[in-house]
Amino acid sequence: MQDVIAQLAPTGVLRAGINLSNFLLVSGRSAAGEPEGVSPDMARAVADRLGVPVRFVPFPKPGVLADAVGTGAWDIGLIGAEPQRAEKIAFTAAYAEIEATYMVPPGSPIASLAEVDRPGVRIASTARAAYDLWLERNIRHAGVIRTDSIDDAFRRFVDDGLEVLAGLRPRLLKDVEALPGARILDGQFMAVQQAIGTARENVAGAAFLRDFVEEAKASGLVAALIARHGVRGLSVAPPA
Fold first, then answer.
1. Cα–Cα distance between 33 and 79 in angstroms, integer?
2. Are 172 and 100 in contact (CB under 8 A)?
3. What is the rounded distance in angstroms from the CA atom of residue 116 to the CA atom of residue 188?
C-alpha cells in the first residue's frame, strides 16, 4: 500500500480534480464552499481507503482538468473516460454512466438518431465535453457548432435555428421544457463513462483505483451515493 500512497498522495493529501460543470456529479457546495455530490464523495471514499485527507481541486470544465494531468495540480481526476484523454490518463472502468442524446426543434423532420449525421444538419455541442469528443470522432457529414458552455449551446441552438442540440439526457429534459414543441430523440448516441483517472506513470495507483471502483459498484456504494444526492439520469455502470 505504501507504493500506492506514494503515487496517489505524494504530498500526504489526496488532491482530487473535480469537474464542476457536470451538474449530475457535483450537485452543490458545502457551507465551506467545497463541491458536494457523487464525484466528491467518491474521491473522499478513495482517500478514506488510503488513510489520507482529501483536498478538492475544482476545474470549470473536464477538458481543463484533463489538460492538467502530470502538472502536479491533481493526483486523481474524476471525469468522463475518453480515448483522447486516455493517452495521458490511466482510467478505471466507469463507476457511473450518463446517456447522451439529441434534441430537435419544433417541426423538425428528424425523427431518429440515424438521421442526424447528414449534410446540412448543424449540431450545437459543448466543446470538449465527453460527448463532444465522441462527435468529433464519429460525425462525418453534419456540422458541429461548438460553444464554451452547456447554456451557450442551448442559446446557440435556439438563436441560430440549428437543427440539433447534443447533450446529456438529464439536461435535455430541462431544455425541452423551455422550448415548447421541441423533442428529445429516443435512444442514445453514447453513454458518458464517468471514471477515476491518474497519470499513466502511476501504475500501482492505477491498479488500486481500478479495484476500488469495481468494489464500489459491487458493494452498493455508488448506488447509495446516487440515492443520497437524489440524482436523476445517473446510473451505476456495469462491472468491468
1. 20
2. no
3. 12
Q: Would you say 212 and 187 are in contact if contact means Cβ atoms under 8 Å apart?
A: no
Rg, C-alpha atoms of the chain: 18
- Look up residue 154 and give its three cell numbers: 442551448
Which residues, listed in sequence order, are joined to residue 236 by a DSSP beta bridge? 96
Q: Are 55 and 16 in contact (CB under 8 A)?
A: yes
The string over 23-45, giving b where at least 16 C-beta atoms fall within 10 Å of a residue's C-beta and e elsewhere, is: bbbbbeeeeeeebebbbbbbbbb
Residue 238: exposure state from Cβ atoms within 10 A (0-12, 13-18, ≥19): exposed
Q: What is the mean pLDDT of each run of 10 residues along the chain (240 residues)?
A: 96 97 92 95 98 97 94 96 92 95 98 98 95 96 96 98 96 95 96 95 98 98 96 90
Q: Return the DSSP state at 115.
A: G
- Separation of alpha carbons 129 and 228, rounded Å: 25
pTM: 0.81
Point out which residues pair with 99 in neighbouring strands: 191
